[in-house]
Write a structure and sequence with these properties.
By secondary structure, the chain is an alpha/beta fold. The chain is globular, with a radius of gyration of 20 Å. Bound molecules: adenosine-5'-diphosphate and magnesium ion. It comes from Caloranaerobacter azorensis DSM 13643.
Length: 313
């Protein structure tokens, strides 16, 4: 059966350094190409936390060096760089894996802007830490000079924080659709997309981080996908996670999932956005299903053998 599947890759599918990542993506490509080989249409989304952090920090340090000619790199540009570099590695590895199996299918990355609402309440309460750690004094200076919002991060020093707004639309959606409809494999909304706000005909990049689980859900809805598969480091979602009475779940109805969220079973910033994205997708249209499982188990998961399936019934 041919299904349209948006696959959201987590941090464990990528690497912390370019060298490590170029190796790791060879493994990441295998389950993805398995899905393609089985006849599915596959669209790939991914996170970028460590990568955009690395780029941001490197540019920051280089621009701060005495006599430096390196300009300051705004955060949306750092996001674009991370999309480009991660996309390059993924398309390189997926292309090779396809060719190794005799499949001649074009693969490309679309540098993707994701539209957010300038009135999103997230802009009043920045929560995502990015970049280097600073002393209180340095933090104050940065706040004054650059208007950054600086917050103490778990006793380790001060860091800049940026908002995490909700994705509203994908600027390049027609391009992605056209490529997918022509049977091409597309990597899109990397790192949740480059956050932009609309002003007339302009899209203006803003220093913010869109959750990749929410952006993946958004593009899955836009593309009318059948499945949203969120691949991460765990095979299933658990309730009482890490406790003695931990229970791994095979299936979650939207109602159950909402109840478990209320009871606080899913950690904010890690499992919570995945379950929320899964619920949103399952609710968005009849027949849509979401699956949360590990990268290695993606194919068993789609066959119903493992993972946590989230459905609206
Ligand atoms: P990714 O990079 O894939 O987004 P995250 O670290 O953000 O990964 O989220 C996945 C992690 O969430 C899992 O590896 C697990 O440690 C953690 N987690 C938190 N709560 C739960 C839960 N209830 N069930 C399963 N995993 C959970
Ligand atoms: Mg995450």
């Amino acid at each position: 059966m041919k299904r349209k599947i948006v696959v959201a890759l987590g941090g464990n599918a990528l690497g912390k350094t370019p060298k490590e990542q170029l190796e790791l993506v060879k493994n990441t490509a295998k389950p993805i190409v398995d899905l393609i080989e089985s006849g599915n249409e596959v669209i790939i989304a991914h996170g970028n936390g460590p990568q955009v952090g690395m780029i941001n920090l490197a540019m920051e340090n280089a621009s701060k060096m005495e006599g430096s000619t390196t300009p300051e790199m705004p955060f949306p540009e750092c996001g674009a760089m991370s999309q480009g570099y991660i996309g390059y590695h993924l398309q390189n590895a997926i292309r090779e894996e396809l060719l190794n199996r005799g499949l001649n299918i074009p693969v490309a990355t679309v540098i993707t802007q994701v539209i957010v609402d300038k009135d999103d309440p997230a802009f009043d309460n920045p929560t995502k830490p990015i970049g280097a750690f600073y002393t209180e004094e340095e933090a104050k200076k940065l706040a004054e000079e650059k208007g950054y919002i600086m917050k103490e991060d778990a006793g380790r020093g001060f860091r800049r924080v940026v908002p995490s707004p909700i994705p509203v639309d994908v600027a390049e959606k027609e391009v992605v659709k056209t490529l997918v409809d022509n049977g091409h494999v597309v990597i899109t909304v990397g790192g949740g997309g480059i956050p932009v706000v609309k002003e007339g005909n302009s899209l203006i990049g803003v220093p913010a981080v869109i959750d990749k689980d929410f952006a993946s859900e958004k593009i899955a809805e836009i593309l009318d996908a059948d499945y949203l598969i969120i691949l991460t480091a765990v095979e299933k979602v658990a309730i009482n996670f890490g406790k003695e009475n931990e229970e791994w779940l095979d299936k979650l109805t939207v109602k159950q999932a909402e109840k478990y969220i209320e009871e606080g079973h899913f950690a904010p910033g890690s499992m919570l956005p995945k379950v929320q994205a899964a619920i949103k997708f399952a609710k968005s249209k009849e027949g849509r299903k979401a699956l949360i499982t590990s990268l290695e188990k993606a194919n068993e998961g789609i066959e119903g053998k493992t993972g946590t399936l989230i459905i609206n019934e």
